[in-house]
Amino acid sequence: QLQLVESGGGLVQPGGSLRLSCAASGFTLDKYAVGWFRQAPGKEREGVSYISSADDSTYYAPSVKGRFTISRDNAKNTVYLQMNSLKPEDTAVYYCAADWGSYYSTSFDEYDYWGQGTQVTVSS
């Protein structure tokens, strides 16, 4: 069974940190670009960060640039999202998704596999 599983979400105070993990099973992530997306209640899904498979080039949404870091560990078949200096507006369900190919896409429709999501809540 081909699937992505996110973990690492939780409740954190403003200014705190979390590291999300996106683990693949049934396929190897090293041939896929991977994106992290999030959706807050009443809001549209948005792309947060992406990483390519060809050269590990990355993209960050302006709202998270300088605070979040995406990385991959091919030996563990996992992609991470390190989130620092968290703000209440970062509260959302975070999803990872994999897109077959060398370079990331910012289009949701390009992604072949999606995880079930992990809740991140930033609150005091």
Explain what this protein looks like in three dimensions:
- With 124 residues, this protein is mainly beta.
- Helices cover 0% and strands 49% of the residues.
- The protein contains no helices and 11 strands.
- The strands form 2 sheets. Strands 2, 4, 5, 6, 9, 10 and 11 form a 7-stranded mixed β-sheet that branches. A 4-stranded antiparallel β-sheet has the order 1-3-8-7, with no helix packed on it.
- The termini are far apart.
Q: What is the fold's blueprint, element by element?
A:
Elements (H helix, E strand, L loop, with lengths): L2 E5 L2 E3 L5 E8 L6 E8 L6 E6 L6 E3 L7 E6 L4 E6 L8 E9 L12 E2 L3 E5 L2
Parallel strand pairs: 2-11
Antiparallel strand pairs: 1-3, 3-8, 4-5, 4-9, 5-6, 7-8, 9-10, 9-11
Task: Describe this protein with a few key phrases.
124 residues, globular, single chain, seven-stranded mixed beta sheet, mainly beta
Give the helix proportion (percent range): under 10%
Structural class: mainly beta
The CA-CA distance between the termini, in Å, is: 39 Å
Largest sheet: 7 strands, mixed
Tell me, briefly, the overall form.
Answer: globular
Percentage of residues in strands: over 45%
- The unreliable regions are none
Total number of helices: 0
Radius of gyration: 13 Å
pLDDT averaged over residues = 96
Reading the helices and strands in chain order gives: EEEEEEEEEEE
Let me know the number of strands.
11
